[in-house]
Amino acid sequence: MMTFQQLVLASHNAGKLKELQAMLGDTVQLRSIGEFSSVEPEETGLSFVENAILKARNAARISGLPALADDSGLAVDFLGGAPGIYSARYADGKGDAANNAKLLEALKDVPSEERGAQFVCVLALVRHADDPLPILCEGLWHGRILTQASGEHGFGYDPLFWVPERNVSSAELAPADKNLISHRARAMSLLRQRLGLA
Ligand SMILES: O=P(O)(O)OP(=O)(O)OP(=O)(O)OC[C@H]1O[C@@H](n2cnc3c(O)ncnc32)[C@H](O)[C@@H]1O
Ligand SMILES: [Mg+2]
To answer: Which of 9, 37, 87, 177 to mutate to test the pocket of ligand 1 (most atoms within 8 A of CB)?
Structure first.
């Protein structure tokens, strides 16, 4: 069993930090990479896995701590899986509101049954920057893209993601509820098992 008292989270996204720390509980303290550097690595990979590993190695190198990275995004069926790994950059770095507006526009005349989508989360954990055996865990969350934004919780595309098992948008879920069923929750549950925390 691997034990970590502290991990650096290779993310500058406050929403992820909050959700991941809540899922991990107090056995492991997550420190933000923002404490060590404000420079974000370029996400040059072509897959969630590659980008997660790249971010984890970068954070381990900078901090000297074991590092956890989360590469995630939204894959929309009608768009052939886009925006996918480009979810954060979909509207050219103009932020969540612009990303959501662009997605609504792209699906403007698409009927409800063709609006299927999944949130994807890949977690990568490296013990050190050159770790040859990163731990990789993936989680998917199936839903649909709404025709207008709804809800105030969460971040990113949450207001547009309809959750069939609850019949609400993911931004209408209480944070604790989202953390039980989301793509990130599924990936984290696998990671906890791998670390012997489950
Ligand atoms: O790379 P880091 O620094 O971790 O932060 P980021 O926000 O750039 O994160 P990603 O590169 O992994 O891009 C993820 C994108 O997918 C969106 N996303 C991921 N998980 C989400 C969730 O639980 N709810 C809503 N949107 C989510 C998020 O808003 C981003 O636009
Ligand atoms: Mg990113």
So the answer is: 87
